[in-house]
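Z., the sequence and structure:
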Amino acid sequence: MTETDALLAVGTRKGLFLGRRGPRGPWTFDEGPHFPSQAVYAVAIDTRAGVPRLLVGADSAHWGPSVFHSDDLGRTWHEPSSPAIRFPRDTGASLERVWQLHPAAAEPDVVYAGTEPAALYRSEDRGESFALVRPLWEHPTRSRWEPGGGGEGLHTVVTDARDPAAVTVAVSAAGVFRTVDGGTSWAPSNAGVSAVFLPDQHPEFGQCVHKVAQDAADPDRLYLQNHWGVYRSDDAGGHWTDIGAGLPSTFGFAAATHPRQPDTAYVYPINADWDRVPADRRCRVFRTQDAGGSWEALTVGLPTGDHYGTVLRDALCTDDADPAGVYFGNRNGELYASRDDGDTWHQLASHLPDVLCVRAAVAP
């Protein structure tokens, strides 16, 4: 990756598209798509070892849903010689989809995967093979977890650069769970998050969490986009505070944080759960720079008329450039990017298949 300073991976309903940008040049996209006609829900760009490794949740002709990787920016892909992820026979479950791939913040060779049915898997060989984290699978609340509208998926993994034993996950629609002992035990971490669709609107678990993102400066500060509600936690998920005031809607799927600036997060509000288009039918990313005390609409360069492109939970992200790149794709097949922390935008692509996830990184 010496000839380029940024890489963009876009998972869609019909394959993976890869974009590259040189130090002073525009974005260019390879011929693609990789994994044609496959729905790519999970992508990670692992830059921890110097040579970037792309990790993709896709379908194997041999094993069904699996994890592939590339160490040459997508020129070639490695398929494991046995299923990368499989449910042990005694669970009675079978893998339907890989929802999330997350390189651990404190362990150079560890990659976590979230799946449907909702489970957490851990790899200690950079994504070559994965093992089920059984204590979460066997959690005493599990029999009462209910699938969200998109299925019962473990879609978010957050790790702590200070402590490899601390891991936070989010499940639709079971809520947030956290371990501080490396996965031996797990506790629900949903205090303060509402579940408006349940008789008890503040249960211990059962919230339909859509995404959790970690603050750049304080790993204990987390931002949460709920089925209804935007929240912040200052104690690693121990308690959540509503920070949705000032947004045109508190329904949405995506949440991301700035890679360096503290207290800075991004969301993309959706009109309602029954009207899943951008809030007020306007294409707007909202940013807070004071941990949710206030929000500003970022619109310069984005479409100004009626707009109907919904942004899904993993289709909004940032890179680690300075200033930061911010990216999002929508279900209209449009892809947008900002090179200045979100202040201004330009369209990178249109007429792509339905965008499911977007990941970006700069060269190490």
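The two ends are 9 Å apart (CA to CA). The first strand starts at residue 6 and ends at 12.

Let me know what you think.
H.
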